[in-house]
Amino acid sequence: MKGRGLNIALAAYVALIFAFVFAPIVFSLIFSFNSQRFPTIPLGEFSTEWYVKIFNDPDVWQAVRNSLIVSSSTAVLATTLGFCTAYTDFRYSFRFKGPYLALILLPPTIPLIIMALAMLAWLSRIGMSGQLWSIILAHSVLTAPFAMAIIRLRLHQMDPDLEAAAWNLGGTEWQTMRHVILPFCAPAIVSALCLTAAVSFDEFAVAWFVSGLNKTVPIVILEIVQGNIDPTVNAIGTFVFLTSMTLVILAQVIFISRQIKSHS
Amino acid sequence: MTDPLVTFRNVVKRFDDFVAVRDMTLDIHEGEFLAIMGSSGCGKTTTLRMLAGLDTPTAGDIRIAGRLMNDVKPHERDTPLVWQSLALFPFLTARENVEFGLKMRGVDADERKTRALDWLDRMQIAEFADRNVATLSGGQRQRVALARSLVMEPQMLLLDEPLSALDANLVIRMQGVLTRLQKELGITFVYVTHSQSEAFAMADRVVIMSQGDIAQIGSPKDIYRAPANRFVAEFVGRNNILSGKVTAHDANGTHIATSQGAFVAHTPDTAPQTSTEVSFTVSADLVTLSSDEPDAMNKAQATLISEEFIGSIVTLFFEGADGQEYKVQMQERALTGLDLAPGSTFWLSWDPKNANILGDR
Asked: Could you report the predicted ipTM of this complex, rounded to two decimals?
């Protein structure tokens, strides 16, 4: 059968793409548990040596701490910004709404390196570069569009009468925000928090430019790789990958399960 | 007579260039069931939204219990609305939905629960109290929406085509529920609908709107038997409309010469002057059909075109001289003995007192 052949070909194609994308990560994961210093086959013995090594490295700990602070603060700031924008889009119509939305969606379309340079130039001019705050601000600008897109999608699914129904039942605008809009958007807000945290957690270019001495995990990884061949990079890489993937998958699961629920 | 609960005085509502409501003056009395009826875009929903404070009048005054309401915010009013979409909160259970308004008004949790359960019980859906509203059927959701509004113990309930999403059987049942509730509670219902059967079945008074204007206000019977103008006569359907020139007035009524012959109609309070052009209507169910020429003051000959059979009621469509259309509505069993082949000729006749001269001449 023609259709069957085509299906197999397509499935094989998709499998190849996945293999191509994930193979390096899988190898990195395998080598992170390999006792040999060089990534060669045959493998040496199973070992957690490299994990122990990074576990005992204060620089790595400092970087993890920095990354956690940056990604969690970025998530909160970017999601707040994204929510406010999505809500103004949902609720109000005003002149220049088109340009307003375009402006917010702009950052991801700018090449990262240009964005990073511009951020550095601007932040150092106003005396705010080289601090954790600098990375948080830069990452918030970068990730807010993702948060807005997710929350905006959710708001578009809302019956527009819902808000007016809450006013009609005696709710003030603030009460309505708290008891109707926020609960309705909750799954999208949680997804946005996870996704923006994930993007911020493994973002390198902007962080490297504006961080100064406050290194985040991706910067430490680069420094290790630049120095010499060191298998600890596989261990850190695995850790970063698992953290980001967990956040992204969590975001997907929460958002999609609610979508299904509200349509059933 | 007591003062009306709601007064509209020369109310206008404009959306940019579009005039949704023009110069509306209307009184709504305490405890009445008022239906506002019209086709889509006639301004009926805008009228309701202005009562709820969701739209602000462009001009004119709206008062509720004497208080000027133009700039009163929706949440400061006591005008709960049952939405066409129902607008139930999808992330809450049936009981939490009913409690919502009480919660906004700061009623404590125990009392909220008691009152919500009481209303769910009255609406016969107490067993679904803790179910998410998304899992309820259309009829059950409808009852939750009603309970959510009525638990507020309002003076007036606004309803915006609440039955339009239900199937025919359920509509009849909910009509019964609504009329019974309105009588029991004694509160004012303002009910917006495009459905003549809903309005006529439930309302004490019906307001018919057309393009932002009130076309007629009256009891369902008044509107059915004595439409005030051509728009209403056509909108409520099943009316024969004839036009001609007034020739004389006498004890029998107003004599009108038409292309179909000379007819006599009931003389209205302000009689039209002779030789003016007038139109009059005769309800389709008040026309008598016969094969032989009857001995009647109003009679016309017409050819049968087609018939429309709806259960026990049959509507027959005729064509008279000059292409004049006639409709005759009768019981199916009353047709026995008549040869209803299309193309056959019949005599139609009606009593002068059933011929109603239209106000807009």
From this structure: 0.83
